[in-house]
Amino acid sequence: MATAEPPNGLWHRNNKAHQSDELSSHAGSHDNVQEDNLRQWQKHAQKVKVKVLEQVQDQLSDILDNALTESVQPFTHIQPTVNGKMTRKPSSRSQKMDNGKVFMDRASLLDELFEISHIRTIYHMFIAVLLIFFLSTLAVDYIDQGRLVLEFDLLFFAFGKLGTVTWAWGVMFVYTLLVPYYTLVFWGSLYHSLSSKLGLSLGTGLILCAVQTCVLGLFPIYTVVNNQLPPASRFIVILEQIRFLMKSYSFMRETAPVVMRN
GO cellular component terms (predicted)? Predict the structure, then answer.
């Protein structure tokens, strides 16, 4: 036979159920509060991120504007003429040649670049990094071996056979100094006295071109290959070959028209 549950037990059970409902509702409200706080924090972080990006972008744009302004400053002395063409202000030191060319003293491209503070900063940073690398290498060698290890074997190898480089450079220098000049002197002395000016010019030009090809074209290459010059010495010979070729060509190009007119 079933017995009736006492009213006290029923009340306790209802009370426990009510407390569990309150706890669950309190936990749910606490979770909702945490979610709201997380959303607000995400919104705040997004706003801060946008502000920081805007500030960085503004600063970068200001830096770029300043760099462009400073890079344009060396060219502010260029002024437009009446015809719309760009002309430079005349320099204090200039020399006008007979053929109409005007030679003016002006700064080189590197000088104009070094007028910009950012370029100077990069240059100084490169020197500082090079010094730090050098000092760190010395410190590591001293710590590992207890002494300064100054090895110049690679330097001696790269600039080896300097005697061969010297006499090859001397041959090219003497040729560039004497042969184009005396060739133009000989050609100029006969140009106005002979009737066949075209034949004289062609003959002299072909002979000079052949000698130029042999001395300033094939001779440096033969010296480099035959003597198996190291990298730096080879570089010196080839660069001097190009320099002498440019100088001789410039001299003949500027002098030949003057001889033909006079």
Answer: endoplasmic reticulum membrane
* Contacts (Cβ under 8 Å, ≥6 apart) of 194: 200
Residues 6+ apart with CB under 8 A from 198: none
> How large is the C-alpha radius of gyration of the chain?
42
Measured between alpha carbons, how far is 68 from 113 in angstroms, rounded to an integer?
A: 12
Could you tell me the two tokens for 181?
């000049």
Cα torsion through 14, 19, 24, 29, rounded to 10: 130
pLDDT at 218: 92
- Greatest alpha-carbon pair distance for the chain in Å reads 155
More confident residue, 20 or 247: 247
Two tokens, residue 208: 């000079």
Q: 95 pairs with which residues across the strands?
A: 103
Rounded to 10 degrees, the C-alpha dihedral 183/184/188/191 comes to: 70
pLDDT per position as a tens digit, 21-64: 555 666 556 667 777 777 887 787 777 767 777 776 777 777 76
Q: Is 228 helix (H, G, I), strand (E, B) or coil?
A: coil
Give tens-digit pLDDT for 74-100. Answer: 545 444 444 444 444 444 455 555 556
Counting beta carbons within 10 angstroms of the beta carbon of residue 180, is it exposed (0 to 12), middle (13 to 18) or buried (19 or more)? Answer: buried
Q: Judge whether 169 and 240 are in contact, CB under 8 Å.
A: yes
Residue for token pair 């003293």: 105
SS3 51: helix
Give the DSSP letter of residue 216. Answer: I
